[in-house]
């Protein structure tokens, strides 16, 4: 098969198997582009059943990507579970680098590498899925002159990923799956500059190299943005706020990367876990005070009983906060007890 003039990169998650099947059946074996797909899969799963399913519905040659395999037109490469799929020049790379937006494989990592390698000859596609993977990736593609498509949220089984992309990036096409094949064929049939001749922003080159594990140190990350007083939720290292593009993002020097939305959700999960631990410790303190109050006498016993009543109030407020996902209820005077309830 010939070397592709274009690459089509696709990111999808929940609901993706059906969406991918519907899309690839529209693409002919003579497609002058390589198709690279990130479908979020469980780390211990196998990608082979999905490859077989796609092969049954498409004229494209469908394969599970292999490290340093040469890109070929008319071929679909699926990211293996728990591995990033990247593009470097005319090869695919399969790596186990740090997670991006909590995912490995990550659509953002694939999209960025393809944008750096192929510039305006990249078409990025975000299909059905939850959360935000692919949003920053489409921004990378647009900054390098490529084209961004998203599945119409009304057509998506899970609209979160397409909606996130549309909120943050000026996408070129919003289409139902059944209209995407024709548009993709038209886009990859348009003559464009040879890969390598277009301007590629330096920050994206640095980030692509970090993902390839060529670089990845504090000095390199300092070139990308400014350090902020936030720690990486995956490794505990310092985070840098990146100053480029339309999507607010954060990165640590070991390679973990987050959009602001993904980082906010990650911190919410960590905070909730911490509060459950706090609730468990307060329950244990309540049980201990109960035993102490029942075994003492006089003023000392009264003092423990008072502490017990106080901790019961705090336990009830914290439990209600966790179960309802909201602030503690107002006091009779209209004020709210927040931090004081946790002391």
Automatic annotation (TrEMBL):
GO biological process terms on file: chemotaxis
Residue ranges occupied by any CheB-type methylesterase domain in the UniProt entry: 2-191
Biased segments, Basic and acidic residues type: 333-343
Catalytic reaction list: [protein]-L-glutamate 5-O-methyl ester + H2O = L-glutamyl-[protein] + methanol + H(+)
GO CC field: cytoplasm
E.C. number(s) listed in UniProt: 3.1.1.61
Keyword Hydrolase: yes
Family matches, as CDD domains: CheB (cd16433)
Stretch list, region Disordered: 323-343
Official protein name in the record: protein-glutamate methylesterase
The species this protein was found in: Hymenobacter luteus
């Amino acid at each position: 098969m010939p070397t592709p003039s274009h690459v089509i990169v696709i990111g999808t998650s929940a609901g993706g198997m059906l969406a991918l099947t519907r899309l690839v059946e529209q693409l002919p074996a003579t497609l002058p582009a390589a198709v690279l797909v990130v479908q979020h899969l469980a780390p211990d799963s196998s990608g082979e059943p999905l490859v077989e399913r796609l092969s049954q519905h498409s004229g494209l040659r469908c394969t599970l990507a292999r490290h340093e395999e040469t890109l070929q037109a008319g071929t679909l490469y699926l990211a293996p579970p728990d591995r990033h799929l990247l593009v470097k020049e005319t090869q695919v790379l399969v790596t186990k680098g740090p997670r991006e937006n909590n995912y490995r494989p990550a659509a953002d990592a694939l999209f960025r590498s393809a944008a750096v390698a192929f510039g305006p000859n990249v078409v990025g596609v975000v299909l059905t899925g939850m959360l935000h993977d692919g949003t920053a990736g489409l921004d990378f593609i647009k900054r390098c002159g490529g084209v961004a498509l998203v599945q119409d949220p009304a057509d998506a089984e899970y609209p979160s990923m397409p909606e996130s992309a549309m909120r943050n990036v000026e996408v070129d096409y919003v289409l139902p799956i059944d209209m995407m094949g024709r548009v993709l064929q038209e886009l990859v049939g348009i003559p464009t500059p040879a890969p390598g001749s277009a301007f590629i922003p330096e920050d994206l080159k640095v980030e692509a190299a970090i993902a390839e594990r060529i670089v990845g140190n504090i000095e390199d990350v300092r070139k990308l943005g400014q350090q902020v007083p936030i720690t990486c939720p995956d490794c505990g290292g310092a985070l840098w706020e990146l100053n480029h593009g339309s999507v607010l993002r954060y990165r640590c020097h070991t390679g973990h990367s987050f959009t602001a939305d993904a980082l906010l959700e990650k911190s919410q999960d960590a905070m909730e876990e911490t509060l459950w631990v706090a609730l468990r410790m307060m329950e244990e303190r309540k049980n201990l005070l109960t035993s102490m109050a029942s075994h003492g006498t006089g003023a000392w016993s009264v003092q423990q009983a008072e502490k017990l009543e106080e901790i019961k109030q705090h336990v009830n407020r914290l439990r209600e906060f966790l179960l309802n996902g909201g602030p503690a209820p107002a006091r009779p005077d209209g004020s709210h007890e927040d931090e004081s309830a946790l002391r």
